[in-house]
Amino acid sequence: MGLVPGIPTVLVTGGALGSEVLDQAVHDALPQLLRLANVIHQCGVASALTTTFASLAAAHRGDPVGAYALSEFLEADLIGDAYVASSLVVCRSGAGTTNELAATGRPAVLVPLVPTGGDEQRRIAQRFVQARAAIIVPNEELTGPRLAAEVRELLGDPERLAAMASGARSLAPGDAAGALAELVLGAASRP
């Protein structure tokens, strides 16, 4: 991905369709973010986005310290690499993404999509906050300056990031397949 070694990396992902709010905040904060870290940005492919791949690529100007790896979509092998390379993830709090955070033990800035059916993104984000694995920035409060400030604060506190990573790992299901098999076998053995 062309990342600069020896500095932190921030992964930003709004999912396969992208997130206008996340993409616009990155667009506005990119010069500040690149003075702190590499940025891997999966911006999505939805045709309704006004913050486009082209406008994001054009925002990468100046003399950055870090690299900007912009992609509309990260294939399965690259998304795993992006999580492993990241020091911090900025993302929505859907079930798929948060399971990836837990499985890889990555600290996060969660921006729940509200409203969603059953308000699950906000509830999942709260669970990550309770585990000290993430902070929440409400969707309506995410701006470029706010994103830059939150990332700066978190990257500036390695002990907090380590604790958040531990909190994220604590949310990963241990042997989920085995537990499910036990449940099925137990239910099948009942009359």
Explain this structure.
This protein is of the alpha/beta class. It has one domain: Glycogen Phosphorylase B (Rossmann fold), CATH 3.40.50.2000. The chain has 8 helices and 6 strands; from the N terminus they run βαβαβαβαβαβααα. It has helices spanning 20-36, 53-59, 76-85, 95-104, 120-130, 144-155, 158-170, 176-189; strands spanning 9-13, 38-42, 68-71, 88-91, 108-110, 134-136. A 6-stranded parallel β-sheet has the order 3-2-1-4-5-6, sandwiched between helices. α1 (20-36) crosses α6 and α4 (95-104) packs across α7 (158-170). The longest helix has 17 residues, at 20-36. The protein is globular. The mean pLDDT is 89.
Structure characteristics:
191 residues, alpha/beta, Rossmann fold, six-stranded parallel sheet, 8 helices, 49% helix
Q: Low-confidence parts, pLDDT < 50 over ≥5 residues?
A: none
Number of helices: 8
Report the structural category: alpha/beta
Q: Briefly, what CATH class?
A: Alpha Beta
Radius of gyration equals: 18 Å
> DSSP strand (E) fraction?
5-15%
Helix content: 40-55%
Tell me the overall shape. globular
The count of strands amounts to 6
Strand order of the largest sheet: 3-2-1-4-5-6
Measure the end-to-end span: 56 Å
- Major sheet description: 6 strands, parallel
Mean pLDDT comes to 89
